[in-house]
Design a protein that fits this description.
The protein is an alpha+beta fold. The protein is built from 13 helices and 11 strands. Strand 5 and strand 6 form a beta hairpin. Helix 9 runs parallel beside helix 13 and helix 11 packs antiparallel against helix 12. The longest helix has 22 residues.
């Protein structure tokens, strides 16, 4: 798996020794050379491991599962093992020659299990490194947006026939808009850190959109349940370094039962706007119709016949819903004292929330034009 450039931060000797111990706990060829932080993830700790084998360097990705977020790591790993094995079976059935680039491959620990639990009770896993591909923290073009969307659509289609049993819910109620709404209201009522006064207008903006929450509840009873990724940020797709084609979907901790709308909507709220997710100048926060069109076309192309008409009809609402939902999550975490997201500066959660709410406002203003884009793309793909 590849996901970005390594961090240049130098660990202390005890940390380095721990990383080496973790690296040696897996069935990796050759001798260990180094381990160092890698990528820009918000939740798990990710390391790039280099080894020497038969005179050449090999690279591997190791991750420590954040047990505060994923409280049952064994279930996370069970889901991941099933999903990646099924993807590879689908790719083999399709005759793909580059299956090792198209799906993650878990490397077993030396005891044969898919993960290693260290002396502190921390869970670690290892993947092969996908060479010649990398992630983007922001889309640089409509072409990249479409490629990422196609990869996520293809991911959904690959898992459409995943045999039972039903996957575990690794984070219960993760995209349950009603639960997120109630969490935000509870955090605002408690106001444990005295932060509500600074974001009361933002909070009232959310309260005024409770009708969207009710609509999402109705859709859960009408649309088919899928195996969904549930965290479809642009940097969770590796793009080919030469062609910018979507190669592999990564970060599978949140793969579980859900609606296709969650995946498209979360991607659109992140990739349809050309600004940073925590942009402070809200005047810059807007939906780019060109990017949105590329996302719709790419997702429909990747998912193909796996999507039903009722799902395609709700893509604009999905974008609005997931933008609201993330806004609620960021704001609730800000009010609760920044306990979930690994923020990099004080106040970042509130900036993240405000960016989502500003983007939601623009999704609402452009709704008719965006619905026309979806209708045109759906007609072209049918």
């Amino acid at each position: 798996m590849g996901s970005g450039e390594p961090s240049l931060a130098q660990p202390d000797p005890a940390t380095l020794a721990r990383w080496r111990e973790v690296a040696e706990a897996f069935e990796l060829p050759g001798r260990w050379l180094s381990s160092r932080p890698y990528g820009s993830g918000w939740i798990n700790e990710t390391l790039l491991v280099e080894r020497e084998h038969e005179g050449r360097r090999t690279r591997w990705i190791q991750q420590r599962i954040n047990a505060r977020v994923f409280r049952e790591p064994a279930r996370v790993m069970e889901n991941m093992a099933r999903v990646t094995a099924h993807q590879r079976a689908v790719l083999e059935r399709e005759g793909a020659r580059d299956a090792d680039r198209r799906a993650l491959r878990l490397v077993p620990a030396r005891d044969g299990l898919p993960a290693f639990v260290d002396a502190d009770g921390e869970w670690w896993r290892t993947f092969h490194f996908i060479e010649g591909a990398s992630s983007r923290d922001a889309v640089a073009s409509a072409r990249e947006a479409g490629a990422a969307a196609e990869a996520f659509g293809r991911f959904l289609a690959q898992l459409a026939d995943l045999p039972g049993p039903r996957l575990h819910e690794t984070i219960p109620h993760f995209h349950d808009a009603r639960a997120r709404f109630e969490q935000l209201v509870a955090a605002a009522k408690a106001d444990a850190h005295g932060r509500l006064a600074d974001c009361r207008l933002d909070f009232e903006f959310v309260l005024a959109r409770e009708g969207m929450v009710a609509r999402s509840e109705a859709l859960r009873g009408r649309l088919p349940e899928r195996v969904t990724h549930n965290d479809t940020k642009i940097n969770n797709v590796l793009l080919d370094d030469a062609t910018s084609e979507g190669v592999c979907v990564i970060d599978l901790d949140t793969v579980m039962p859900g609606l296709s709308l969650y995946d498209f909507g979360d991607l659109a709220r992140r990739a349809a706007s050309p600004v940073a997710e925590d942009e402070r100048d809200l005047a810059k926060v807007r939906v780019d119709p060109r990017l949105f069109e590329a996302l719709v076309a790419g997702y429909l192309r990747g998912a193909g016949a796996a999507l039903v008409a009722a799902e395609r009809d709700e893509l604009v609402f999905a974008s609005q819903l997931m933008t609201l939902l993330l806004g609620m999550r960021f704001m609730a975490d800000h009010l609760a004292g920044d306990r979930y997201f690994r923020i990099r500066r004080p106040g970042q959660n509130l900036d993240l929330a405000r960016t989502q709410l500003a983007l939601l406002g623009d999704f609402e203003r452009q709704r008719d034009a965006l619905e026309a884009i979806v209708a045109k793309a759906a007609a072209a793909s049918s």
